Amino acid sequence: MTYSTGAAPRFGVNYTPSRGWFHHWLDFDLDPVRRDLDAIAALGLDHLRVFPLWPLFQPNRTLIRPRALEQLAALVDAAGERGLDVAVDGLQGHLSSFDFLPAWTTSWHRRNLFTDPAVVAAQAAYLETLGRALAGRANFLGLTVGNEVNQFSGDPHPDPDRISPARAADWLTGLLAACERGAPGRLHLHASYDAAFYQDDHPFTPAHSARLGAVTAVHSWVFNGTAQRYGPDSAATVQHAAYLVELAKAWAQDPHRPVWLQEVGAPAPHIAPGRAGAFTRATVAAALDCPDLWGITWWCSHDVDRALADFPELEYTLGLLTTDQRVKPGGRALAEAVAEARQDWRPPGPRRTALVLDLPEAAPKRSTCAPGGAFFEAFMRLAADGARPTVLLAERVADPSGLAARGITEIVTVADLT
């Protein structure tokens, strides 16, 4: 699936079923799904990201349930009837503080998710099978290897599967190839949470995100210390998503590689409910000012039903819609922002001011890029002053053709701003 530089970005939502959350796969009923999809389509969005639960779809290493695949296909078809494209995540993996791993990877069968040959072969077979089941559907966008699977690879996970950066690259390359075998030519990618960009010595690196797969995915959450440190209305908070988009570009080999803002949301209490609409509008506007943005996929479609126990408090209220399909202020703000962007879309111009990031390719010490880090704060000072900064690796400062390809005409260092 090709991407055209300068194309209007896509606008979508991460689909959280209103009835039963992701446990709806246990007693799948298409009627409430259709009601959810009607409400999503009414917001003017054009795609969904959906999450089959891995243990339910592949409960045994050599069993991928045909009925589960049929139910997923039925959801994709129902979305297509409403003009919605669908991206499907594979290895779920991790969702809203809960881990969902098949029994054949845990306890008595404990095996490393990333390095055990039998486990990796089964993962590849599963992703290839998902792709084959959906490849004939025009509204199927492609597969994401899994949702923030990098969180299983190190701290702060309570029981991590340790891996080296080289083995992480091998794992990602192999599973992306399986996605391509199952559904050739679709938009296949992988997605890490922000430890890949912010956490020192994390085995999944920025280069993995920016070079493997069809597009680069970033997940922007201001509960990571941004809103707490700088305040909910600060430039750092409303620019956080745009910052991650630009930070990801620094490691890309293609100067116009598209970046997908695959998760972004307005978490309470870090963003007060009464400020959700303003935060949504400001975050979307900042992201749309980033060249080569593939799209924005908001987290999430529906609130979590409070009848379900043990979620972190903020997870219950992240939806654009309530469980009874009422549009919330954030949902209205997103719908308005989408309509405005489509009405008069003009691709943003190059970000001509580049802040130099002096990190080697493996980027072992990434905390300078995290909230509170010197690089993060320098970027946000530029953004607050209206400079529209981007990020440039120090090793590329002396590459005139690379600078020209990105439209960079001014280079600034962190030292210049201190």
Automatic annotation (TrEMBL):
Key words, A-Z: Hydrolase
InterPro entries, per the entry: GH
Matching SUPFAM superfamilies: (Trans)glycosidases (SSF51445)
Molecular functions (GO terms): hydrolase activity
Protein name: Glycosyl hydrolase
